[in-house]
UniProtKB/TrEMBL annotation:
PANTHER family for the chain: CYTIDYLATE KINASE/PANTOATE-BETA-ALANINE LIGASE (PTHR21299), PANTOATE--BETA-ALANINE LIGASE (PTHR21299:SF1)
Reactions catalysed: (R)-pantoate + beta-alanine + ATP = (R)-pantothenate + AMP + diphosphate + H(+)
Family per similarity comment: Belongs to the pantothenate synthetase family.
The organism of origin for this protein: Anthostomella pinea
Alphabetical keyword list: ATP-binding, Ligase, Nucleotide-binding, Pantothenate biosynthesis
Protein's UniProt name: Pantoate--beta-alanine ligase
Lineage: Eukaryota, Fungi, Dikarya, Ascomycota, Pezizomycotina
EC number of this enzyme: 6.3.2.1
Amino acid sequence: MRSLAGSRALDRPLIRTMASARRQAAETIPSTPIRVLRTVDAVRKWRKPQYLDHRIVGLVPTMGALHEGHLSLIRAAARETHHVVVSIYVNPAQFGIKEDLASYPVTWETDCKILRELDRELADDGGNLGRISAVFAPTTSEMYPSGFPGQEVDSKGSFVVMTPISDVLEGGTRPTFFRGVATICMKLFNIVQPEKVYFGQKDVQQTVLIRKMVKDFMLPTEVIVGPTSREPDGLALSSRNVYLGERRRKVAPVLNRALQAAEAQYLNGAVDRESILKAANAVAVDTLNEQMTLAPEEGVKYEIDYISLADPSTMEELTEVDPKNGGIMSGAVKMLPVESPQPGEDLGHSGGPSVRLIDNIVLQPST
Ligand SMILES: Nc1ncnc2c1ncn2[C@@H]1O[C@H](COP(=O)(O)OP(=O)(O)OP(=O)(O)O)[C@@H](O)[C@H]1O
Ligand SMILES: CC(C)(CO)[C@@H](O)C(=O)[O-]
Ligand code: BAL
């Protein structure tokens, strides 16, 4: 008969085998085949057979807190590629030191639930080439293997810097933003090696930057831009809308209304900067004046960061729209924290800090 000690010794390799099997079992989003990949190495191992099998991979980069805007990009990717990879990573390098990195919504469990439901929808839709195959959710030490370089304007490190596009509009207010975006997107593209990448029109300057990065650095990927998803009242969906709270949410469509007023001028035949921008500024200023007449516990205040009329391929300001090329009307407003918050008032995520909202409308070229 085996001694107790002997039987324990015999069990040990079995225990080791089970443990290493557990270690090797691929992490997935529960009740789905969607792999959760957390390291560069894991993505590379997953990617190689797809490459050898000539399977097309589409990448949808996100910072999580998923909403319908993200889902529209994932749906587009599933229609056109065999394997959709969604990256979820809040990249500190694109946040300025005084920006909202610490409070940025992180909703991993809800994101997984949303992706599970979307994957079922995609499976039932015969029109798709592929499904969501993987979520890439790395840590900062994985994405910055030499150490995180910092969020300061003068931080030293390995960055992708693109000028002058990074210096204007969004980059004017957020001087490290596009350096951070270009750097992280270059890393994501190098890791996933997607044939196609999907970005939202809501962040129009980002799409222009990414297209330029792909062109200037000869990256073997195609950039696809999906339309802006909106709430019924025109507000562009954005992960940051959760900061607004009820009072500011009602006023937040002002930016879209301002841009629509400008678009109406263009559609009526105006091409000069002054006529087009005047219409947008009038809506923004009139709405603010109306708010100022309200009692402090009702009103909402905001600052107009910029309202721009720019060239669609460079984002340089235009004095006149060439109808052959069209233009981009874009803007940013900073919704200030509400005054005289009332007991029980919904102030929004994280106590309702200032929220910067962006939006844009394409002035279509006439054919
Ligand atoms: N309303 C939208 N419609 C279409 N695409 C969108 C929309 N909002 C975001 N996207 C796109 O989704 C991708 C990931 O964006 P991100 O995760 O930053 O979401 P976000 O809502 O833009 O968040 P934030 O509030 O931080 O700007 C980007 O390509 C972005 O342009
Ligand atoms: C493209 C992106 C995921 C890079 O971090 C981010 O800028 C975003 O979510 O738009
Ligand atoms: N969607 C843009 C990401 C950012 O504002 O940081």
